[in-house]
Amino acid sequence: MSSVDKGASQRHAISFGPFSLYARERRLERDGRIVKLGSRALEILMILTARAGDVISKEELTSLVWPDIAVEESGLRVHVAALRKALGDGRQGARYVANVPGRGYSFVAPVEGIASVSMAAPSTPARGRDLPSRLEWIVGRDATIREVAEQLAARRFVNVVGPGGMGKTTVAIAVAHSLLDEFRDDVCFVDLGAVNSPAQVGTSIASSLGMGPVAGDVVQGLVGFLSGRRMLLVLDSCEHVVDALAPLAERLVSRAGTLHLLATSREPLRVQGEHVHRMAPLEVPPEQTDGVTASTALTFSAVKLFVERAQAGGARFSVTDEDARVI
């Protein structure tokens, strides 16, 4: 490498829209800035872009991303949804990943190859292990994010509990991003939603942490790996593996005294050390709709979210007073 290129490296990439994907480095950039994306979502992106324009069945995609694990279709949908969010799919006319009903997924944006590009080596490593991107705009949850972060600092083990679809994962990801500096980037996100066997809980966490093969008691191996290490471990979508996770989480928190644990679940783990934060619904207007105007309705976070999601889905409208009563 010449003196001109010192500190830079040649990297092969593909581009689509404002994005560049460096498959060898498992790195996605938007306009030269790193896009935070979980490892599974990144693998899905690499598979889809490698066969751009083709429809890849959900069964084939699942087998390629999880070759040694039996994963339900819902697990695939979670990671595809995370990928779409990171890409801004559906916003301002952008379209990247299409769901072809009854067939599978297809990458529909034009893809171009970049034979070789010279890029300066990053001055800092990627922040957080497998931590998904934080949504640029989170409706009605700023106070919740601050409160959970404060509880986590004070109590070490917080479980964000609420029904499905309330935004528990969104809040947990935002909290993790807000605490990256506090934990010096030592933050690990584990998506347990893709785990369909209780026996895989410990090994899934170990794998996400980057541990090598563990002989014998996986939980003891995790305790040894995490002891003396001040880090934040985020366990997302725990409700279907509560029985297996509860004793593991209790043991980790009690034995690894510098570990902070943030979980999301539809139900509490009911173990010692757990602090349950119950997610409240977004604010809604009163049931009496007479006199409700568009301007007053849009002061409520639930209405704001409804309108934002409708517009992201392609609906083009400005909320009128009549619309407000229907919404």
Binned strand content: 15-25%
How would you describe the shape? globular
Query: Pairing-aware structural class of the strands and helices?
Result: alpha/beta
| Biggest sheet overview | 5 strands, antiparallel
Count the strands? 13
Distance between the termini: 62 Å
Can you give the mean pLDDT?
82
Q: Name the helix and strand elements from N-terminus to C-terminus, one letter apiece.
A: EEEEHEHHEEEHEHEHHEHEEHHH
* Separate helix tally: 11
Helix content range: 25-40%
Order of the strands making up the biggest sheet: 4-3-2-1-8
pLDDT < 50 runs, ≥5 residues: 1-11, 115-126
Backbone CA Rg: 22 Å
Structural notes for this entry:
The protein contains eleven helices and 13 strands. Helix 1 crosses helix 3 (73-87), helix 6 (201-209) packs parallel to helix 7 and helix 7 packs parallel to helix 8 (242-255). Helix content is 35%, strand content 20%. The radius of gyration is 22 Å and the shape is globular. It is an alpha/beta fold. The strands form three sheets. Strands 4-3-2-1-8 form a five-stranded antiparallel β-sheet, with helices on one face. It has a five-stranded parallel β-sheet with strand order 10-11-12-9-13, sandwiched between helices.
